[in-house]
Amino acid sequence: MKQPPPTDPNTTARANAALISLVRNSELNGIISSMRYMENSFNSKFNYPWVFFNDVPFTQEFMDKTQAETNAPCTYELIPKEHWDVPDWIDQTRMEKAFKEMANNGVMHATQLSYHKMCRWYSGFFFRHPALDKYKYYWRVEPNVKYFCDIDYDVFQFMAQNNKTYGFTINIYDDPKSIPTLWPATTAFVEERPNYALSPDENSYYWLTDSVLRPDHTKAANGYSTCHFWSNFEIGDLDFWRSQTYLDYFDYLDQTGNFFYERWGDAPVHSVALGLFAANEQIHWFRDIGYQHSVFSNCPNSDKCHGCQANKLTPLTYWLNGEDCRVNWFKQVCESSRNKGPVNEEMCGLHGYGWSGR
């Protein structure tokens, strides 16, 4: 799909959308950096509101300094304890033992309770916060991320006009040691509710279960390829998460306790749900949005992008490029399209391996 034409912000109505961020007071400098990139590349043109979330009250300094970075309205929201705290039915002794075992096996963030809470909140609760009730679309923004391209069209209007449910930039493999029972739990859920998942010709089942490119991952994750959309960047339709299908799925997963007994991330949980319950044509790779988080990036070959290395998943370490799962995604989308008729290879993302950014 070609990049949409520029949007005139003076004549085009805004979508019902917000930029959202879960951020600590101590991450003030990191979120200011991200806001500057976001405002320069996109939001200074469109002035979508910012909604900040925290499990403790924001300081006055945080609120004053973040509001000073944008002309858009900012709101500062406290997460309800019942959405954030460890449920009282979690076995604390078992959880602490699991943390140690995962750490010994090299699972990142295994012993960080706040990380487990964050993953669970983004998996099942962020969209339930009353502050988001009035919105349909969101763009998740993390501290210390970078946006490299001039985005001159309204991405939220693009989502609405093209019936898109979810947008991503980076698509990589996860550590199977963090999610060994996510796929077995998912298959058990789907077996109990066979009408929930779309057919493999419509959804992204083969992307979720590929065992060719990384068979070690698929085996260790008990049937799941571990391919996932890196959710620190996501542009999405909140109604997907609010749907009864997703609510039932999350509740089923949550009752296993494995957001704490394992280290289930929101990225694989979101990705598996999207891969089963959404049509793959409703999921969009924002190939034209340059983005970097940590060591991974999406950098189009475009004169609208500056400050990143084009066509590289990571500019730092060559072996990390082996973590890229986009080729599996392109294969899934194209094969699904071929089953329905003639295929536009560029739309599939295969034209020039999809790196042109045009």
TrEMBL record:
Family that this chain belongs to: Belongs to the glycosyltransferase 15 family.
Segments crossing the lipid bilayer: none
Name assigned to this protein: Alpha-1,2-mannosyltransferase (Ktr4)
Record GO biological process: cell wall mannoprotein biosynthetic process; protein N-linked glycosylation; protein O-linked glycosylation
Active site (UniProt): 234
Organism phylogeny: Eukaryota, Fungi, Dikarya, Ascomycota, Pezizomycotina
GO cellular component: Golgi apparatus; membrane
Organism, as annotated: Talaromyces marneffei (strain ATCC 18224 / CBS 334.59 / QM 7333)
InterPro entries reported in the protein's UniProt record: Glyco_trans_15, Nucleotide-diphossugar_trans
Keywords: Glycosyltransferase, Transferase
Pfam families: Glyco_transf_15
GO molecular function: alpha-1,2-mannosyltransferase activity
